[in-house]
Amino acid sequence: MDLVAACRAFVHVSEQGSFTLGASAARVAQPVASRRIAALERHLGGRLFDRSSRRARLTPFGREMLPPARRLVRLAEAMEDAAEQARHAPLRLAVPEVCTTADLARLDVRARRLGLRLDLQAAPPAARTDLLRSQEVRAALVAVPEAEAVWRVPLGAASVAVPDGASVYLETLRAGRGGAAGRPRRLWIQPEDDVPHVRDRVFRLRDRVGLRPAQVAVARTLAGALAEVLDGGDLLLASERQAEDLGLHWRPVGEEDLARGFDAATSGGEDPGRLRGPLRTGIARCLGDPAGDEDAG
């Protein structure tokens, strides 16, 4: 016996005072409502309605059973509503702050066409991991070493002036012309790249080519780093797509093959395959992975 369906028929018939009207309110045929109520009576061990009257009149036992039946029906309806909302709830996804609004909007459109709603939240690398750990988001694009990455974003040096040659060699900063106030030019690491597998490699490169410690600096904000590049002639560690968006000229770093790595991490049983599969190229474009170039249209 379907206890919820039987209780629903019982409640509607009692409220309408009629098996015919109650069945209509329960959206079932009258014989179906009668069978369900009869089955409920057998299950509970007592008559719910006095059938000697033309109206569906409750017995004393029926009056006792009506309040818990109503509670059961309300709980079942609340559960059905919650399930409907859960099926259509957006996937809250933490994304890097380097993703542009336009690219994120295109990703959202692609997800909608695949039947998935996204709620995108931009955050720095450590914050994305924290949001996922606390389950404030159901998924995050997390920074990982290249060997573990689903998306790989080559990094290089971005500058106001057009660089000489096909690559920028950091060793040239030792003897290069000074920037503002005659100080040596610097390479700025933006917050997205303040992760060990990128930052530490750049620091080791700095030491290897003989730059001063202060010539490679971690910026508190991307805007602050960009101001130094625009005003003082410094360099910004960035992806080619990001440099283009910022109006800078980009070249790869000559001494080291640097790249950001990303993977999709999830919590609460969410399937990361939804991000690594159908949305892979859309995410690639947001991140600056060259694999996303096919998604440009």
From TrEMBL:
Stored Gene3D superfamilies: Winged helix-like DNA-binding domain superfamily/Winged helix DNA-binding domain
Protein's name according to its UniProt entry:
LysR family transcriptional regulator
UniProt KW Transferase keyword: no
Q: Which residues form the HTH lysR-type domain?
A: 1-59
Q: Out of the domains of life, which is the source?
A: Bacteria
Q: Which UniProt keywords apply?
A: DNA-binding, Transcription, Transcription regulation
Transcription among the record's keywords? yes
Q: Which PROSITE patterns match?
A: HTH_LYSR
**What family, per the record?**
Belongs to the LysR transcriptional regulatory family.
- Pfam families, alphabetized: HTH_1 (PF00126)
